[in-house]
């Protein structure tokens, strides 16, 4: 699916000229972008700018998955969609925009939920995954799927006027996973959604753009991570002084049920099979009622 | 406006330990809403607590700071949004001088003059 | 032109619901956004995301000015434009996108250069100005026009993998202007354009989104500035450690020929008339040859 | 790879002044391209210069640092991209501990142990 591309066509040279000039990109890395396949889970406030800038940069293939349709209350922040695509599945609205922005990118639009059943196979087909979702249970599921499939995960979130960003499982097996940093889920009553708490468009937009940047950095070898190299960017959009801070995160957690060594784990290690066969109940784990759609 | 976290009078603190320094405590990701909407406050060392004098002999730990914050400084009555079962609740990261507290010894870390302790509530929206 | 709006229509309530929930926005500030008129000079890599997020947020009126047409080499970073709008004036391509994103926003598209002749009158009609251009002579001209017209300027720039952002003349007459910080222009040989040096899409995109955020903060009273409150954000997009830094900038420069007090100025103070009548030769000032289009 | 800015041998520096501290010098906005692509370097105080010993009695200033950088550390031969007429060229901002050097006394500011001096080339692209 992501066979290495060995050359650019003349229209591609023209289109990518301004980034081919960069020493950190150049032709070899542009070809690396062209041969890459990125899975974007969620085409909302984060996925909108992330997918726009990744398509613009010439990622060879983007798989988009989201079960929702475009609503009017999305459009203040989900700037990939349009008033003319209201009520369309978000992935179809997105595909229209992205194909027109850059017809050289293959767009695979899946109008469906990201579930325990399709998670691992979707992640396995990609080189890199972006978590652009909005619920803790999906965040654990995506991380677990990335660990079992050995893929790097670029995770971001936003609420009100704050945002957070972290590159996980980077490189696979060495950097911490989502469970290493957050081994226990937040109490359900402490989780506020954008629907409840609100969110400012440029704040979630900034986080989505930063996801696109981090994905490019991973692909061109400029985000190395490692056991002690994981950082989290936190953004306070309304601050009048320092808005962005870069925090040094812990390494892998000994005994992590997702990415830990088997001998250190108390209880059952999460596997490809346990995810797919429902052995991990993500909704119950996060304190919710089943039937919520994971 | 918000009630300041630190009482203006510090006369109840023994003078021998009253001037060992100060720390900065910061809240992010919505936690500031639990603390009178303050993103950043400065606290003296030792901490201005009167509920426990047994800890004055040794420098206060981050665990002591959490106890102080939840018992004295937190204005929101929903204590469980900050502490559950005596520990910082799941979903809150604690950073000591911008590094995950796991790298520094977690609750046991002894606070020094000039330290910054940042509490970040994890966001899930997108 | 920017008469205060006293209410939102039901479709507007629905559309802006997620930002109306925010304590920092709410109905009064949403009405402030609706009554605002923002001038965006340049619809390229900065102007693309800036205009998208400002239109999304419900700014009442956007005036767009840019003399260029959409080229293929723009599309990796100028994600407002499309392959289907190649060769159209950028402002027309932008107007198509922005009107479809949010039909409640009035879009005034001017396919022309920003010049000494139209600068002051364009700036005077707006409440706030975004400098999304790419040349030093335009940056001085926009700043001077903002000073004589008493408008706040949100200025950003990007090159290669770096970006910079500063809010100038904020509030008008109190915060430093572009000339206070950069009284002398850079030597021509030290100025690198994106065409020569290249630029990474998400880097310039991040700067443009931050411009939209800062513009909103100015309008809702969350970016106060003042004599000593001006900060510059600098962004190092390829850094593996701290990417964003917030720098404390100087206040107004005594004797600034644009914003200084008359008694402190050596030489001629820049005025509405001197700009318009060509008394200030911006191209020559910046070491260029006239006829470059200012 | 890049040549380090600081020579590994510091034996020519008088011992009485060899250990007064160190500073961090950073480059941004493309200036790092003039300095062997290094974004950040650490320099000892006093500065490792042998061209002028007259300044050893007083702490070096930011002006001395600029002289050191252009004479000794800069690898690009186009000195005019960093210094014009003996001063940092127009379009370069100098920040001392993240504040515009105008707030700190510009060239005259005396460097202290632990200071960070950041040189930022202004960008114009968009
Ligand atoms: Zn793990
Ligand atoms: Zn000025």
TrEMBL record, chains B, D:
<dbReference type="GO" id="GO:0002098">
    <property type="term" value="P:tRNA wobble uridine modification"/>
</dbReference>
<protein>
    <recommendedName>
        <fullName>Ubiquitin-related modifier 1</fullName>
    </recommendedName>
</protein>
<dbReference type="GO" id="GO:0005829">
    <property type="term" value="C:cytosol"/>
</dbReference>
<feature type="modified residue" description="1-thioglycine">
    <location>
        <position position="126"/>
    </location>
</feature>
<comment type="function">
    <text>Acts as a sulfur carrier required for 2-thiolation of mcm(5)S(2)U at tRNA wobble positions of cytosolic tRNA(Lys), tRNA(Glu) and tRNA(Gln). Serves as sulfur donor in tRNA 2-thiolation reaction by being thiocarboxylated (-COSH) at its C-terminus by the MOCS3 homolog UBA4. The sulfur is then transferred to tRNA to form 2-thiolation of mcm(5)S(2)U. Prior mcm(5) tRNA modification by the elongator complex is required for 2-thiolation. Also acts as a ubiquitin-like protein (UBL) that is covalently conjugated via an isopeptide bond to lysine residues of target proteins such as AHP1.</text>
</comment>
<dbReference type="InterPro" id="IPR015221">
    <property type="entry name" value="Urm1"/>
</dbReference>
<dbReference type="InterPro" id="IPR012675">
    <property type="entry name" value="Beta-grasp_dom_sf"/>
</dbReference>
<dbReference type="Pfam" id="PF09138">
    <property type="entry name" value="Urm1"/>
</dbReference>
<dbReference type="GO" id="GO:0034227">
    <property type="term" value="P:tRNA thio-modification"/>
</dbReference>
<keyword id="KW-0819">tRNA processing</keyword>
<feature type="cross-link" description="Glycyl lysine isopeptide (Gly-Lys) (interchain with K-? in acceptor proteins)">
    <location>
        <position position="126"/>
    </location>
</feature>
<keyword id="KW-0963">Cytoplasm</keyword>
<comment type="pathway">
    <text>tRNA modification; 5-methoxycarbonylmethyl-2-thiouridine-tRNA biosynthesis.</text>
</comment>
<keyword id="KW-1017">Isopeptide bond</keyword>
<comment type="similarity">
    <text>Belongs to the URM1 family.</text>
</comment>
<dbReference type="GO" id="GO:0032447">
    <property type="term" value="P:protein urmylation"/>
</dbReference>
<dbReference type="InterPro" id="IPR016155">
    <property type="entry name" value="Mopterin_synth/thiamin_S_b"/>
</dbReference>
<keyword id="KW-0833">Ubl conjugation pathway</keyword>
């Amino acid at each position: 699916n992501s066979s290495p591309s060995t050359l650019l066509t003349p229209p591609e040279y023209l289109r990518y000229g301004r980034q081919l000039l960069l020493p950190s990109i150049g032709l070899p890395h542009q070809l690396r972008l062209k041969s890459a396949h990125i899975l974007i889970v969620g085409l909302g406030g984060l996925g909108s700018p992330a997918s726009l800038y990744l398509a613009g940069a010439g990622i060879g293939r983007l798989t988009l998955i989201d079960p929702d349709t475009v609503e009017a209350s999305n459009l203040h922040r989900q700037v990939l969609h349009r008033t003319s695509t209201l009520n369309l599945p978000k992935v179809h609205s997105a595909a229209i925009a992205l194909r027109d922005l850059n017809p050289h990118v293959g767009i695979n639009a899946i109008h469906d939920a990201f579930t325990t059943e399709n998670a691992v196979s979707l992640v396995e087909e990609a080189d890199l995954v972006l978590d652009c979702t909005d619920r803790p249970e999906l965040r654990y599921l995506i991380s677990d799927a990335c660990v079992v499939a050995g893929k790097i995960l670029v995770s971001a979130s936003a609420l009100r006027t704050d945002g957070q960003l972290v590159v996980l499982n980077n490189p696979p097996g060495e950097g911490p996973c989502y469970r290493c940093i957050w081994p226990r889920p937040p109490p359900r009553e402490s989780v506020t959604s954008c629907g409840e708490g609100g969110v400012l468009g440029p704040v979630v937009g900034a986080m989505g753009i930063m996801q696109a940047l981090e994905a490019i950095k991973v692909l061109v070898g400029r985000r190395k991570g490692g056991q002690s190299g994981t950082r989290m960017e936190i953004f306070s959009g309304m601050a009048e002084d320092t808005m962005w801070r870069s925090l040094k995160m812990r390494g892998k957690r000994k005994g992590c049920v997702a990415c830990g060594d088997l001998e250190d784990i108390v209880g059952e290690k999460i596997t490809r099979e346990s995810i797919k066969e429902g052995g991990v109940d993500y909704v119950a784990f996060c304190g919710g009622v089943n039937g919520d759609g994971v | 406006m918000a009630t300041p976290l630190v009482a203006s009078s510090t006369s109840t603190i023994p003078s021998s330990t009253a001037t060992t320094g100060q720390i900065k405590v910061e809240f992010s990701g919505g936690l500031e809403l639990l603390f009178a909407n303050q993103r950043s406050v400065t606290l003296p060392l030792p901490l201005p607590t009167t509920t426990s004098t047994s800890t004055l002999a040794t420098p206060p730990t981050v665990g002591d700071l959490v106890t102080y914050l939840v018992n004295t400084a937190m204005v929101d009555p929903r204590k469980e949004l900050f502490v559950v079962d005596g520990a910082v609740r799941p979903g809150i990261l604690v950073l000591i001088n911008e590094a995950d507290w796991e790298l520094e010894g977690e609750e046991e870390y002894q606070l020094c003059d000039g330290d910054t302790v940042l509490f970040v509530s994890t966001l899930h929206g997108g």
